[in-house]
Amino acid sequence: MAVAWLEDVRSTDLGTVGGKAASLGELTEAGLPVPPGFVVTAGTYRTFIEEAGIDEELFSAVDVDSEDSEALEAAHERAHELIVETEVPEDVRAEIVEAYRSMGDGETFVAVRSSATAEDLPDASFAGQQETFLNVTEDDLVDRVQECWASLFSQRAIYYRNQKGFPHDEVDIAVVVQTMVDAEKSGVMFTSHPSTGDPRIIIEAAWGLGEAVVSGAVSPDNYVVDRTTGEVETMTVATKKLMHVKDDETGETVEREVPEDKRDQQVLTQAEIDRLIELGKKVEDHYGEPQDVEWAVAGGEVYMLQSRPITTIDDGATEAEDDVDESDDGDDHLLSGLGASPGIASGAVRIVTKLDHLDQVSEGDVIVTEMTMPDMVPAMKRAAAIVTDEGGMTSHAAIVSRELGVPAVVGCGGATRTLEDGQIVTVDGEMGTVREGAVATDEPAVEPGTDDDDAPVGSRPKPITATEVKVNVSIPDAAERAAKTGADGVGLLRIEHLVLSLGKTPERYIADEGSEAYVKELMSGVRTVAEAFYPRPVRVRTLDAPTDEFRQLEGGEDEPDEHNPMLGYRGIRRSLDRPEVFEHELEAFKRLYEQGYENLEIMFPLVTDGSDVAAAREHMEAVGIDPQKRDWGVMIETPASAMGVEDIVDEGVDFVSFGTNDLTQYVLAVDRNNEHVSDRFDELHPAVLDIMGDTIDACRAAGVDTSICGQAGSHPKMVDFLVRKGITSISANIDAVADVFEEVDRVESRLILDSVR
Question: Among 166, 195, 526, 535, who pairs with 161 as Cys (CB 3.0-4.6 Å)?
Fold first, then answer.
């Protein structure tokens, strides 16, 4: 079958229908208001390119240096030509048209939206890279489907997959066809703050179809809502000059000027805000994590058009590269807008009005443009900051700016007219301001290579604390930013992100590419982080991905189909059951030690008792790692491991580290992925704290270090508890390191004062 209906699609069908369609199927099943429709499956695309014989030439065409702008453009053009100029088989065309006709009277307007199989993943946002077409009818439907297929090879998509390590020939694309919502107003909503994760719903709204908001073509109204009270904390009513609407005569989507009486009018009523809050909570509860939602209002009804996980909270905000003088008398203030991506940076303005201007953007420049475009990503990576005339903080390009860690201020109104090429400015992506001149510093510049190279990023000096403060790193690309926080090391580097980025299960990758290639892939990723932090310690956790994540990869059909993967075949139990793959991981560590990366530490996840630890140690010894010479330890994530920590310590570990996400769910019997019990998930529950406290006491008595690397380590109340109990180190998310340093300093100071009073 070339098509599948949304009502039959679930998240487990990601490889068949792509991220967008899988999400829409989930929302439909959850009873949320989703326009009906169907999906042209990813298998249909794959069969099309293979049976037409264009697959090899297609993948060869996009095998280019993605940092070369000209090569990238040529690759995109050739790929597009190959796909759109190849005839779609008649049986596929007929099935698509038949599905369309069954949706109405044969004249229904539909939205045609790309849905790639590597899209909206937990650790990366591929948002905005593929095409969407609105107000499509039967005559153009199949052509638009082909255009969506071709958009899998847009310049930005090619570049981004290269950066994330997704092989082009292993990513497919499905296409969603939905009844068109003739929106009177539309926009986007973050169910939690996209940078900090604070419990605030952020809504952006504009007149007409939502394409104007997500593309950044218009500066939308902005509403920040307290999730607990439902109160609108702040509201910014923008001047909305343009809107996208359906032309009544042609049926095509056109750009029109907003009528004068609506330009400065508030878009949403209080009732509509309340309804969006209600739906936003339901969406987040369903998925169990913060969501980025596209919505529309038509005929008084609110519709959910798309939902994807927010991928930027953990990577969080970056701060200034030097200590900033925050005093501002206003004389140097040039522009204000919305802070779309946190951080403070200075550089020379580079006005970009055409895509061919991007080659003029040098390392450290500030890109100033009317709106951020998807094809600007390679230049954005070189830029110190981004400033735009139009757009909102929830536009797709702004999301990518946050992921890249590039400060951005959007919706400034006249940045391209106010600023001049070559002008030196400072961009504050937190406050949403652009100031004249470079960042002011209190300290003289430091020559590269001195000890001060590792000074923390930001305006606050790093406190000297007895309790170490480390940082969690999800992907090697974040290593440099993480190192600039001034953290005392890495408390958690997740090796599964390196493995999942290969696009194949470890077994399939080794079968296809060989064990040597697998070992080298792991070495490359871990080495990047080890180099960025050397000589500070980097604690690397061996593989701990549940089977539902592996099932989405090539070779995933051989994985167990588990009812609750969180309680299943993962962590050390999987590693010990598949010793050959496990020892390839350990081989990567051995070679890195031999290359001089003495700062690496090995950590084994989800151990149950001392026998698990003893078995893991034997595998270390089997590949030539001496446990007496290298620092190694385990995660305490189960009640059994906490209660039996004395036996674990007896096996010779140097440290134990709490994984509070798993420990909490196992102590409280709360599946952290189950929306029906998510309100019961509480890392600060007395039972969880008691188990952690007893474990710390036992380890201190045995002279073994203790740490925490779970999400709760960033919570002030958890920090207070752990420091008072005498934990050795706390590892926090990148954006929380500075705050945790300050909280640790405060608690330690109070303990000293209490001891002398």
Answer: 166
